[in-house]
């Protein structure tokens, strides 16, 4: 049974090299989809250099309207359907999954029990003192040391959905933002979240370490918030941007809402994971 990775990369390549290195030894094949805003988009040359250096082919390049997250999800679903009976890890280029046991064991258990998708939630990675580190697309820094803190920033500030469908059979569609699985034409949001095809959350809830918060994120939040279209979720981005500006370019690590603690890439190290899981499972728009 093959396990593939699919990621859609566009606009920012800061974390792509680190992200591909994070997954390359645990999957059989990697599918990189490049999302461009125009035929002059500089992102393509950066992605090409990064993937070539890692001996990974670009699967597809597409030109789309900027920040259409609905279209991004369509690209994930289209790519997964190329191999509908394989397992797929679905991750944006700033999302680093940390599993409670090897991914091969989780997938074997899914096969044995008839589960078709595994879920998790964001765990935001933050720089020392709540700062936003400067990361270059082609450096080889240890980002786990560059972002030593972990917590939940997005949800308290913008009410952005914390849930992610992260490991899934190819024929299972996922919803906008890769938040929920679609089963029989319905998403698994709210009361439908506890679905029999989902790996039970009390046995496994995957940590999605979110390395979004480097110094470039301030400009990116501003850019997305200016496009007043439903598909950009611009209000969420504006709320996060306003918070950062109001707090002098930092995240207040003493704010109890964020549950910020020292963190590592060990699943058991973050002390508030049970609270994060409960928040995610109780999340309602």
Distance between the termini: 36 Å
Percent of residues in beta strands?
15-25%
Biggest sheet features: 10 strands, mixed
Q: Uncertain runs with pLDDT below 50, 5 residues or more?
A: none
The helicity comes to 25-40%
Q: Work out the radius of gyration.
A: 18 Å
Structure report:
The structure is a single chain. This protein has 285 residues and is of the alpha/beta class. It has helices at residues 16-23, 43-53, 69-80, 103-113, 143-146, 154-158, 217-225, 234-246, 273-281, and strands at residues 3-9, 29-36, 58-63, 87-90, 95-98, 117-126, 149-151, 163-169, 173-174, 181-183, 186-187, 206-210, 261-262. The strands form 2 sheets. Strands 1, 2, 3, 4, 5, 6, 7, 8, 12 and 13 form a 10-stranded mixed sheet that branches. Strand 9 (173-174) and strand 10 (181-183) form a beta hairpin. Helix 7 (217-225) packs across helix 8.
């Amino acid at each position: 049974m093959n396990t593939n990775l699919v990621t859609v990369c566009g606009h920012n390549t800061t974390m792509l090299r680190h992200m591909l290195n994070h997954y390359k030894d645990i999957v059989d094949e990697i599918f990189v989809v490049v999302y461009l805003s125009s035929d002059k988009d500089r992102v393509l040359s950066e992605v090409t250099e990064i993937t070539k250096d890692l001996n990974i082919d670009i699967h597809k390049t597409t030109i789309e309207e900027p920040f259409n997250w609905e279209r991004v999800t369509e690209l994930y679903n289209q790519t997964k359907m190329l191999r509908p009976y394989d397992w797929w890890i679905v991750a944006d280029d700033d999302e680093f999954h940390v599993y409670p046991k090897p991914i091969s064991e989780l997938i074997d258990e899914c096969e044995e029990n008839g589960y078709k998708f595994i879920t998790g939630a964001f765990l935001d990675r933050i720089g020392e003192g709540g700062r936003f580190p400067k990361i270059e697309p082609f450096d080889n820094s240890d980002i786990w040391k560059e972002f030593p803190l972990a917590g939940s920033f997005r949800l308290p500030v913008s009410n952005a959905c914390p849930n992610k469908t992260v490991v899934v059979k190819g024929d299972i569609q996922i919803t906008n933002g890769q938040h929920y699985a679609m089963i029989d034409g319905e998403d698994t949001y709210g009361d439908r979240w506890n679905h029999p095809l989902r790996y039970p959350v009390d046995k496994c809830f995957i940590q999605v370490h979110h390395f979004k918060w480097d110094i470039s994120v301030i400009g990116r939040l501003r850019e997305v918030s200016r496009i007043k279209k439903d598909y950009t979720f611009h209000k969420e981005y504006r709320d996060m941007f306003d918070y950062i500006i109001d707090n002098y370019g930092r995240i207040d690590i003493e704010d109890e809402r964020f549950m910020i603690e020292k963190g590592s890439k060990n699943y058991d190290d973050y002390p508030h994971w049970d609270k994060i899981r409960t928040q995610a499972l109780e999340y309602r728009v």
